[in-house]
Structure formats: structure tokens, C-alpha cells
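User: Quick sanity check before I run a bigger batch. Here is a single chain. Can you write out its predicted 3D structure?
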Amino acid sequence: MTSANGFPVFCPHPLFFGGHAQTLAGVYLPSGRFPYRAVRHAVTLPDGDRIVLHDDRPEDWRLGGRLALLIHGLAGCHQSGYMVRVAAKLNARGVRTFRMDLRGSGAGFGLARFPYHAGRSEDARAAIAYLAELCTASPVTLIGFSLGANIVLKLVGELAGEPCGHLDSAVAVCPPADLTACSSRIARPTNRLYDRHFTSLLVRRIELHRDQLPDAPTFNNGRKPRTLYELDDTFTAPICGFGTADNYYRQASSLPLLGDVETPTLIVAAADDPLVPSTQFDGVRLSPAVQLEIAPGGGHLGFISRRTKFADRRWMDWRIVDWVAQVSQAGSS
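Assistant: Done. Predicted structure follows.
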């Protein structure tokens, strides 16, 4: 069964039915081995911090060919399974990919004094500007996952048609576009394990970062946050100039900007996502440039499908690849 756009409709695998099962399967199911062969590029940001881009270049790629810039989600990095898989699949179709480590993540550990957050659209803009100098005349598709997807939508909304390097398209998968709603969702008792898991990972990363850079920000009074909201309210928001978590969520959310987007953009979400409510889009004005697809299932970055023409069942990956192929074809016609 195919949708109006000609791509197969997502049908969940019978063994992974429901949002939690899809979310966990997306993380823990084996997805093949992809040896690391990327070339690293360090990009210096206006405030002196640096981020790292991991450049996977197909052998047949030539200057002027398409690029894709991938941005990971909360507590992720260039090695996150979805980042590696999607980069490999795009490479196989001739697209040169750059997997971006947000501030302090992955290979960027120790290179940034300040932390990343869901509103760091200026960092994505800096990366795109770098690509414009590195690969002159090569069009760029910006692809974000979860927190990275909000960064993508925030940037294209802020641009509102303003040129940004050679950016010509974007994809946002499971974006927490309304950060307040997403914070309330993850604070539910049914999501307590997710909340504790992410908080623990981030607290540990902050502690290791402080060991690496003694002058880096740390927790107030040395008290470790126990929830994501508490971490945002006592660490991320005050350090990054928002003051409080509530102000951070209001200012960093991309949802109010979706009516201003002029860059062709695909949003993929799941109705059963346990972390990001698809109802955040109800009644929201979307620009004609935005194509919103809410699958009935898929969880959060899961989308493990029944057997189709995609042998690995990774529907999300192939939806992204298909979108990029369509954009490339439209640009060359």
C-alpha cells in the first residue's frame, strides 16, 4: 500500500506494536556494520566553541553533487544508529553526507565550553556556511532527528526564505517542536524510565566535560538534577541565557515558526510517539513548503515496518532517502 506521495505507507512490524516497542526496537535491533571512514572537519563557531562534522564521501561524488547535513538527537552523536544508517544509505545513492556532532558530543567532546540545546539553530547555520565554502555550488539537504529535528525546523523558520549557504531542502523526524508539551509528556509516570535514562546520560556527560575543561559550567551548588526539566531549569537554561526552563522551551520551540518556512521541508512524526506528542501540530499554521506526515505508528525514531521492498524494515531511513532523491530530481530538472 502506498500513500499519495507514492511511498509505502508505514505498517508496524507485528512483533513491535505500540510506541514503546517501536522506540526500543529502533535503538536495540541490529542494523548492520558500517565501518568508520569519515574525514573530520572542525567548525569554529562565533563564540569560539567548535563542533565536528564527519564527512562520508561516495567515490563517485563530484563537486556540485548533493550534500546532506545530519543532526542527532538528545544524548546522541555521529555514532547514533540512525545517523550511521541514513548516512550509509544516502552515500550509496551518491549523496555526500556530513554527520554533525552538536557541542560537546562525540568527537566534539572537549571542544566546546557551552552545551548544546534544542534551539541551537545558529550552529546548524554555521555548519551550512562551512559547507558552502568547502563544496561550492553543492546543494544541501538538512536532516534532523528528535532534538536535532527541532533545530532544523527552527532554522528554516527563522530563515523565512533568506539564503543560507546552498541549503535547498530539509527533513525533520520526530521533532519536539513544542518543547513545553514534550517536557510535560516525558514527565508522565509512564515515561519515567526515559526521563531517568536521558538525565543520567546528560549529567554524566556534563561531569566528564567539567573534568576536561575545568572552567566549563557545572551544576548550581553541586546538586545533580534528577529529571530533564530540572536539568534544563538549573543548568541548560541559565547557562545559555534563557533564565528558566519555561523561557527556554518558549524561545527554542520551532512550532510558532512553521508558517514562515519557505524551504521545502518534510516532517515525519508518529501518532504513538511516547516522547513527542503528534497533537502538537493540531491547529498549527503550516507553510505550503512544509509537508507533514504523521504515521499511525512508529514510536520515537523507531518505524520498524512489516516486510516490504526494504529488507532491513527501516521505514524511516528509506523515507528520508526517497525525499532526498525527489528533491535532487526536482533540482536537476
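The two ends are 28 Å apart (CA to CA).

User: Great, the batch can go ahead then.
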